[in-house]
Design a protein that fits this description.
- By secondary structure, the protein is of the alpha+beta class.
- Strands 2-1-3-4 form a four-stranded mixed β-sheet.
- It has three domains: 30 residues; 97 residues, Glutaredoxin; 63 residues, no CATH class.
- It contains eight helices and four strands, in the order ααβαβαααββαα.
Length: 197
Amino acid sequence: MISKISSVVCLSIFLILITSNGAGAAEKQIPITKFSQNIGGPTMTFLYCHSCGYRKAFEEYASILSEKYPQITVNGANYDPPGINYYLSKLILLLKMFLILMIVSSYDIWGHFALGIPAWYRWCTENKIYACMMVFFVGNMLEAQLISSGAFEISINDIPVWSKLETGRIPSPHELFNIIDSHIKVFSKATIQDFNQ
């Protein structure tokens, strides 16, 4: 009975030591700033080009920021390209799906217009798997080209603080920390002035 109690106590002490060492290591990697402890409320928004593969970069930044600035809310979304490209990509998506359905069902749309079946469509209906794969991948490639903006836009409380479209690059973590710290200082001064008034 005593040996069971002593083994449970030893195991508990061991787990407490491991847990405290892991927490200390995490704090040494990215220390929490004094601004994040005192000031709450800022929202940071990332608008990124999903087709360019920037989602992973956003997730890494969101993870780092949640550790260093736990009071900041981090949001992310796809940056929709401006202009007609967005609508053209949606049109290509609809045409791609329509063409795949026509090929799979072997529907003769040409008969409605009193036209003969083109040779390429006859080949597609005879080789449905290859044709559908080809339509799918070519359609995806065209859609990606149209909506690929290369954007990685960052804003704090709807105020733009970084634009990859203007600078041509993604900020380093150190640059982003400096931007956040300066905005938090401004935010904290404005909050104190509003409170005093």
